[in-house]
Every structure is written in C-alpha cells, then in structure tokens.
TrEMBL record:
Protein's name according to its UniProt entry: Uncharacterized protein
Domain of life, source organism: Eukaryota
Source organism per UniProt: Schizaphis graminum (Green bug aphid)
Length: 219
C-alpha cells in the first residue's frame, strides 16, 4: 500500500478491482453471479449434513431460508461459510511475543469466522476492533491481512492496513477483499485461508499451482 498512495484514498478499491479485471477479465462478476445458486445448494447441504451452528445457528439459518429482507440470505451465507470448515493447526514461522517460543496454533471456529468477517454493533467500535486484530497478529508473529468488517449489518468495510474502504453491500465487500489478495499479491489470513480458498475455487473458478492443498476445500 505504501508503494501506491492512490490506494490509500477512500475510492482506492476501484484500482484493486481494475487490476483484478486485468488479471482475470472474465471473472469479474463471478461471486455475484453464482451467489443465488449457492444459497440453494448451501441450504440443501446443511440439511443433508445436519450441521450444528451453536446458539445463533437457528436465527442465521432462518435468514438463509426465508430472509426477512432482501440481502439477508447473503449475510447468512457469509456467517455460516467459515463454520463449515474445521479449523486447521497452523505452524507459526515466527515466535509468539507472549512467550518467545515458536509454536503451533489451532484457531477456534469463532476465530476463523472473525478473521474472515468481523461483525460489530456500532461505528464506535471500528478502530477498537482493528487494534485488537493488529495486536493479535503481532502476538502470533503475523502480519494482519485484509479483512471485512460489518457495522450493525448496515455498513460494510474492507480494511487493508489502516485504510478503510466503504462498500455498498456485504457481497461487494467480500468481492473487493478477495480481489485485493490478487491485486496486491498477498496471502490470505492463515486463520481463514481455507474459507478464501473455497471462494477462489468455487465462485471465481481460479486454480493456482501455489494453492494450499486442503481436503475440506476440495470436498
């Protein structure tokens, strides 16, 4: 981001989208175009697999199946998607700052989901939520990667470093966040790498030789 000052502006995400379109000219609208079909498939998959999503599960599933307002089914998809994957044990390359030793880390499903999309209740918590992420990345010897944050289900941001891109819908925010990994040539957050890989493979139909081989993504 430091090399490209224009990206630090509020509309800098347009440059990310243009660059992705240059890289993959026929895949620009893949996420949006496949989402409605995926909603139907996800409902069928959840019923057949008998998933348990915790206390909030029933209300999220209800919005997925019979949304109370247009677009709520897409929010439900993105809330449920990271919960479909069992978190993987991660070998940390750096040393944890709290104890100074190299170690492994197995994120919880809640951590996996929050690394993908963070939901907060009001705008006053926006900078606090970001600081929590920065501090956690530092603790584990990691670099904070782009992520999506949603405020009260009405405002949607993609956060890259200290730049906040405000988008009009959650689908658009996920779309821009995904494209940023390719445009900026950076890795997915390790806590939710398999979630982003699924989006890459299923929605955008992009397969790379460098992709991690993760069984849950293939199945």
């Amino acid at each position: 981001m430091e090399l490209y000052p224009a990206l630090n502006r509020p509309l800098g995400h347009f440059l990310i989208e243009l660059d992705f379109k240059h890289l993959y000219p026929e895949k620009d609208f893949k996420l949006l175009n496949k989402m409605d079909v995926f909603v139907v498939k996800l409902i069928e998959h959840i019923k057949s697999a008998n998933y348990q999503f915790g206390i909030q599960g029933p209300s999220i599933l209800k919005e997925l199946q019979t949304p109370s307002k247009p677009g709520n089914e897409y929010t439900a998809v993105f809330k449920l998607l990271p919960l479909l994957f069992q978190p993987l044990t991660i070998k940390l390359n750096g040393k944890r700052k709290i104890d100074g030793i190299a170690s492994v880390w197995r994120p919880s499903k809640a951590e996996q989901a929050a690394a993908f999309i963070t939901f907060i209740s009001d705008v006053g918590k926006l900078k606090i939520a970001h600081k929590v992420k920065v501090d956690k990345a530092f603790e584990y010897g990691l670099k904070l990667q782009p992520y999506v944050i949603v405020i009260n289900s009405t405002e949607f941001f993609v956060v890259i470093d200290n730049t906040y891109y405000k988008l009009e819908t959650l689908i658009k925010a996920v779309d821009v966040c995904f494209k940023s990994f390719f445009s900026l040539n950076i890795h997915y957050p390790i806590e939710c790498e398999q979630v982003w890989l699924f989006i890459q493979h299923y929605f955008f139909e992009i397969k790379l030789k460098s992709d991690q081989s993760i069984l849950s993504v293939k199945t």
